[in-house]
């Protein structure tokens, strides 16, 4: 229970359905540690924790606060920094769901003798052919299946997603009808919880003393090797970035590749940003134990991506994704998520590849 509307209505629904509900609020981070300038808000704030507890008290079920700041910092935040220093764009919410929140919640559930865990994600889960399958939530604008690709079968076996069958407007109405008008009108935060001002560059500077001096002054380079300017340090740029480059070359230019070994940021046109193939590492399959031969799935390379059809194949510990048409902005470190209709087939992290890397044999 984050104190927000989705987890609160989830608890309310399950309580009304007759489940024995126990509320858990996980303290993952505190803004005082982040050095940000904004007021503490979101799921880790004292106000949000109090909102969650108030709802539990009103409905008459127990509520506990689970402090996982140590695990969160060691795993999620360290990985966030390491990924940028490796020239990749991290996906902390996916890692948090997979390795922190579900693991911590299931451990606590076992201690409290709870059979299931429930969250306020807009997604569905069902048992089919001996596996537990995630599918998109009914509300396409709120669907969160993209960030759940890392969940194991053991985790899914004990997971309930009560909101998957509803639209957000219906959830707000439920809160209002239950007498929680303030909750119904509560705003949502889409920021990374430990980057309160939404400025990851400032966060990196605070987290890694002397980073700016170490990486400042690297080269902006075109595909043909031409040096066209100096940048402020490769960790401060992301694939597909156009704004903030502070360089004029007569036509719109985008970041097409980041090479940390040489502190180089490669620039190119929109056409040069396109890719026909990518490798996906550290993948997890949800719907199938292994990908069917010649499998074609809609592949999303970012949360708001509509997806592009790709031929997917497991090869040497990675998934090869050959897009049926070029896609733009394939960013190493981000999640690539595969769908079959509304079903989540699986996903993984986009691997860093170099120009000219041999493509797999898909014959």
Blueprint of the fold:
Elements lengths: L4 H12 L6 E5 L18 H14 L3 E5 L1 H17 L6 H20 L5 E2 L4 E6 L2 E6 L16 H5 L1 E2 L7 H10 L3 H4 L15 H8 L3 H5 L3 E3 L5 E4 L23 E6 L4 E5 L5 E12 L10 E5 L7 E8 L2 E11 L6 E6 L2 E8 L13
Parallel strand pairs: 1-2, 3-6, 7-10
Antiparallel strand pairs: 4-5, 7-8, 9-10, 11-14, 11-16, 12-13, 12-15, 13-14, 15-16
Low-confidence stretches: 36-41
What is the CATH topology assignment of the largest domain?
Answer: Rossmann fold
CATH superfamily of the largest domain: HUPs
Q: Number of DSSP helices? A: 9
Report the count of strand segments: 16
**Which strand-content bin applies to the residues?**
25-35%
CATH architecture identity of the largest domain: 3-Layer(aba) Sandwich
Radius of gyration: 22 Å
- Biggest β-sheet description: 6 strands, antiparallel, barrel
Shape: globular
Output the helix-strand order.
HEHEHHEEEHEHHHHEEEEEEEEEE
Query: What is the first-to-last residue Cα distance?
Result: 49 Å
If you had to describe this structure to a student in words, what would you say it looks like?
With 363 residues, the chain is an alpha+beta fold. It is 26% helix and 26% strand. It is built from nine helices and 16 strands. Helix 1 (5-16) packs parallel to helix 2 and helix 1 crosses helix 6. Residues 36-41 have low confidence and may be disordered.
